[in-house]
Structure formats: C-alpha cells, structure tokens
C-alpha cells in the first residue's frame, strides 16, 4: 500500500506520454483535444509555386484525458522559407529570374567578366610596378583596391559557368561592393600628402596633412564596416526580409561614404585656392594641378558609382519601374567602368612621380603624436623658465 499511489501516478504518466501524437498539416490547425483520430481533409489541387516563398506548417500535439490526468491539445504554428525547383538549369546553371535558385536577374556575360578581369589585372600589375619604381609604400592601399576589383571579376567569370553556386556569386558581390572604399581611402591619403608637400605650413585650416589623412581614413573604415555588414546580409540566397535589411544597411553605408566625400571635396577646393595664391606670389611649388585634378576625377567617378547603387537599391525590384537590376549593361557602365578609369588615372598621374623631394615623406601617426608631446614639453619648460626669471627679477 505504501507504493500504490506512486505506481498508479507513474502508470498514468506513461499512458499520457504514449498518447501524445505529433503530426504536421499544411492546410491549417485541425487539432483535437482527444486521442481519437480525425479524418484528414483532402487538399485542393493548386498550381505549383515557383521561387522562394514562405509556407506555414502546423505542429499539432493531440490532447489526452484519462482517470488520472488531462493534457489539453496544443498547436504550434511555424512560418518557414521554402523553395521548389521547377525549372531545369541549363549547362551554366542558369534558371529564369525569380525562380528557385536563381542567383542573377539576367543572364551574366562570361566574355564581359573575362574582359574586365584582364583590364583590372593589367592595372593591378602596373600599380605594383610603379609602387616599386617610386618606392611609395603607401600605394599598397590602391593595390588592394585593384586586387579586390580583379578578384571580383575573376570570381564573376567563374560564377557565370556555375550559376547554381551561391558562394561564388556572394564573394563576387561583396568584393565589387567594397573595393571602391580602398580607392576612397587612397584619395584621402594622397590629398593629405599633397597638403604636407605643397603648403609651407604643412596644414590646412589648422589641421596637418598627416592628421587629416588619418582622420578621413578612419571615417572610411567606419563606412567600410557598415557596407560590409549590409553586403553580407543581402546575399543572393538570403530570405527577402534579410535582403531588404541588408540593402538598407548598405545604402546607409554608401550614403555615409558620400557625405565624407563632400566634406573632403571642400578641403580639396580649399587646398586648390591656396596653391593658386602661392603660385601667383611665385613662392609655391609647381606641377600640383595634374595630381589634384586626378583626385577630383577619382572622387567624381566614385560619386557616379554611389548614385547608381542608391538608385538601383531604392527603386525596388519591379522590372517595369526599375530596369537597373535586370540588365547587366548598367552594372558595367556605372560600376565597372568608373572604377577602372579611377584606378587607371592613378597610373597615368602617379603620386610617386609628383611628390618628389624632401617633403615627399609624410610623418606617420606615431611620429605625429610624439612630435606633439615634445612640443608640449618644450612649451611647459619654456613657461617654467619664464616664471623662474620673473620671480628672480622681482626679488632684485
């Protein structure tokens, strides 16, 4: 008798557990509160959907009642992304846009991707050779820009032959979206070096060329991180809600990039005016125009590319209202060509051929900070000497 109640409770618990039935139903919740099975209605035939969409599934746990316990029924609703492959990929893996596993909104051109791979490869090789010739170590930044563009189009060329490989498409997309930030950073570095080289004060608006370049490069890094996060979220296989979230983050990043460019152009225009004044007075260095105009052109080309991306991403995904995402020619005209020209322009007017002489080497961040500390220490020592001299003079 001592064990009768626990044994009865255990038997009741096992009977309840064995009565639980889990089943799925795509048509809606049809849960019952008893273990008596109910007939499943015959689904109405519908057209097979294509593309990526959401489906609702219901997990139903049937209820059970006996002399010892009552367990009510419970239905769990799950909304899951799914995809039904209804199109047969061609030899390159292409399926029509909007269908399942479609990575491109157009048929990508293998020849165009190979052509720009070769062009960016040539520009990359030239920048490496020029950096070695002029011994300009800071040119590693533009070499990175060239290499990322080159890698993007090589990956794109491979992706055109393997269009069911989402990894290739994602790598190509991220590289081409982020590479222009390296060009931007290089422009900031070159203008800082021009301020240090051409202006006797080595500063503009009270800011040294070294510090100015460092500040804008750090701002560029902030924009880089934001765009990288957005580009990663908006992958070709991501759910639609995730894609829109990534696009909004990326648009914020390139908007931030353009804001920094506008401020930077104001500083470049200020430098332009000061160099013209020095030239009229006969006290300034010459040969500054080609490099400064190349900077203007580079920033202008980046701006064209930024506005292209803003319009492409903000105008929606309807072909009749926004043709940009659905025709590859727009990508090459407003993305690939501007970046190629911006990089090649620096081959034609290389900073190493202009910034030659004693002021060509700009102090780095560590030297800049140490120099400021030494200046502050000298000022403190000088102020201390003045105080001692005044005290001695007053005693006399």
UniProtKB/TrEMBL annotation:
Record-linked PANTHER family: LIPID TRANSPORTER ATNI-RELATED, PROTEIN RTA1-RELATED
Signal peptide extent: 1-19
Bilayer topology annotation: Multi-pass membrane protein
Residue runs in coiled coils: none
Chain ranges passing through the membrane: 106-126, 138-158, 170-191, 203-229, 249-269, 290-310, 330-349
Location of the protein in the cell: Membrane
Identification of the protein by name: RTA1-domain-containing protein
Single GO cellular component term: membrane
Pfam family, one: RTA1
Region annotation (Disordered) ranges: 26-46
S-adenosyl-L-methionine in keyword set: no
Keywords, sorted A to Z: Membrane, Signal, Transmembrane, Transmembrane helix
Biased composition, class Low complexity, residue ranges: 27-37
